[in-house]
């Protein structure tokens, strides 16, 4: 009984890892697999999985060839791929997804399927694969199928890829950097901070998030200033510090960030980060309400019940002052 019929559980040379080049001994089997012969693809997956027939064991390559064989109609390939997945590390799984994504993007052993490629790149990028992160940068730079063309997004993804260990992405990052405006660079830094802080599209890294948000905050980006306030308030990668949090949130509030205006208002009412000041707290909530926040309106009604008439009157002049500051900031930015 040959390998294909035996039911044994169990690549593609996509990528540029010199340690994963076609091994000696693959011979005609490798050539036939690359030309699209499904049987050869399956047999090659078997050999990569178990490491025989002149081929070194390589689970990533095995997984990629199983995908190719399954796509081309080999019934056992999908089952074997599922079994193989149990033996693969998270890093190997991410690398396999990147390689399979590259295969679907380029076509050859399988039909081109860029939608599948995009999803596989995203899954691999979320697991920290530098190649997939760089591929997303390339897709955003050129506006590939299903991806919005954006130098800001491209720069951000190239930076992430470099941080994950890619050398080639450093060249692409530097090339994009030369054509970014100052405003676009600030936006890209803010995007990087959000990517690292959310930990959905790439692995969570609070230190990197703080680094990028701080760079953007120095350019007076309200979203970045708000994020710095949240980082210090909740102690995300740093010690909790309400005073620092209030300082950053106040900057964001003065630059027109409604979320920050609400947070400063509640902190001033509760005495967080500074002595309690109901007049200042109520003023910031009123500013946020004027900016259109329903949440600020609700909190404002509750806060006003606890204040006397004299305090409410003091709020009016404070509100005018803050609105004038915000208008001035916006005019200067324009």
What does this structure look like?
With 334 residues, this protein is an all-alpha fold. It has a domain at 251-334. The chain is 70% helix and 0% strand. It is built from 18 helices and no strands. It has helices spanning 3-6, 27-34, 38-50, 59-71, 75-85, 90-106, 114-126, 130-142, 151-163, 168-177, 182-198, 206-217, 222-234, 242-254, 258-270, 278-290, 294-305, 309-333. It is elongated. The termini are far apart. Mean pLDDT is 90; it is low at 1-25.
Short description:
By secondary structure, the chain is mainly alpha-helical. It is 70% helix and 0% strand. Helix 2 (27-34) packs across helix 3 (38-50) and helix 7 (114-126) crosses helix 8 (130-142).
Mean pLDDT: 90
What would you report as the Rg, rounded to the nearest angstrom? 27 Å
Largest sheet: none
H-E string? HHHHHHHHHHHHHHHHHH
DSSP strand content = under 5%
Which regions are unreliable across 5 or more consecutive residues at pLDDT < 50?
Answer: 1-25
- The gross shape turns out to be elongated
- Structural class designation: mainly alpha
What is the terminal-to-terminal distance?
Answer: 76 Å
Total count of helical runs of at least 4 residues: 18
Q: Please bin the fraction of helical residues.
A: 55-70%
Using DSSP, what is the number of strands?
Answer: 0
């Amino acid at each position: 009984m040959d390998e294909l019929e035996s039911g044994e559980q169990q690549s593609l040379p996509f990528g540029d890892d010199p340690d994963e080049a076609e091994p000696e001994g693959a011979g005609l089997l490798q050539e036939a697999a690359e030309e699209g012969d499904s049987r050869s693809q399956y047999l090659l997956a078997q050999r990569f999985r178990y490491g025989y027939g002149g081929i070194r064991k390589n689970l990533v390559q095995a997984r990629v060839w199983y995908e190719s064989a399954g796509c081309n109609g080999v019934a056992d390939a999908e089952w074997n791929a599922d079994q193989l997945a149990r033996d693969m590390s998270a890093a190997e799984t991410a690398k396999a997804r990147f390689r399979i994504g590259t295969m679907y993007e380029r076509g050859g052993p399988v039909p081109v399927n860029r939608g599948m490629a995009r999803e596989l790149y995203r899954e691999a990028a979320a697991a920290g694969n530098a190649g997939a992160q760089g591929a997303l940068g390339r897709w955003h730079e050129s506006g590939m199928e299903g991806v919005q063309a954006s130098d800001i997004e491209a720069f951000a993804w190239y930076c992430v890829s470099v941080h994950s260990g890619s050398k080639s992405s450093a060249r692409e990052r530097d090339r994009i950097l030369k054509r970014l405006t100052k405003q676009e660079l600030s936006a890209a830094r803010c995007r990087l901070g959000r990517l690292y802080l959310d930990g959905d599209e790439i692995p969570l890294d609070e230190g990197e998030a703080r680094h990028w948000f701080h760079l953007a905050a120095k350019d007076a980006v309200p979203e970045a200033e708000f994020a710095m306030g949240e980082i210090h308030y909740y102690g995300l990668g740093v010690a909790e510090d309400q005073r620092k949090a209030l300082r950053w949130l106040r900057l964001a509030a003065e630059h027109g960030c409604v979320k920050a205006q609400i947070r400063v208002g509640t902190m001033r009412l509760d005495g967080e980060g500074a002595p309690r000041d109901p007049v200042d707290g109520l003023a910031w909530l009123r500013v946020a309400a004027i900016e259109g926040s329903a949440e600020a309106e609700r909190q404002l009604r509750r806060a006003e019940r606890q204040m006397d008439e004299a305090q409410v009157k003091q709020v009016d002049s404070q509100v005018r002052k803050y609105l004038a500051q915000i208008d001035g900031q916006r005019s200067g930015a324009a």
